[in-house]
Design goal:
Oligomer: single chain
Shape: elongated
Strand content: 5-15%
Order of helices and strands: HHHEEHHH
Largest sheet: 2 strands, antiparallel
Helix content: 55-70%
Radius of gyration: 19 Å
Structural class: mainly alpha
Number of helices: 6
Strand order of the largest sheet: 1-2
Number of strands: 2
Distance between the termini: 32 Å
């Protein structure tokens, strides 16, 4: 998975804690990326039902309260893969290990993906805001 997920959480944290609307340029300054990246990820979050934006008007706001947005919602909004762990494409079926490795990996990888998603479902954007406040990042 690329960094879009972390950027999306960063954007939502900014939007959810800012008292004033922020432009994509201002968000880009915080995230450390080009404003084009911010606009792209903001579009994914909007289509995912997490942000509300208006064309030609700078800024965005959360589509629902931060305690009703899970990190799993964000994960899905940015088009996260069905699994973050990929198996290799062509094991040799004539090899005893090659013939059975995919099934073994599918089970383990499926369990790992389920654990990841379960954990992300437990964490709310409000928890991110609270952690930032505790760390002194929000004054």
């Amino acid at each position: 998975m690329n960094s879009q997920y972390a950027i999306a959480v960063h954007i939502l944290a900014l939007v959810g804690t800012s008292e004033e609307p922020m432009s994509s340029e201002e968000m880009a300054g915080s995230v450390g990326v080009n404003p084009v990246v911010i606009r792209h990820v903001t579009g994914l979050l909007r289509r995912g039902g997490l942000l509300v934006t208006r064309r030609g008007v700078p800024g965005a706001h959360l589509a629902r309260p931060a305690d009703r947005i899970s990190l799993l919602d964000v994960y899905r909004a940015v088009g996260a893969p069905d699994t973050v762990l990929k198996r290799h494409a062509r094991p040799n079926p004539a090899c005893p290990v090659g013939a059975g490795i995919q099934g073994v990996l599918d089970e383990v990888f499926g369990e790992a993906q389920a654990a990841l998603e379960a954990r992300l479902a437990q964490v709310r954007l409000a928890d991110v805001h609270a952690a930032l406040a505790t760390a002194g990042a929000l004054a």
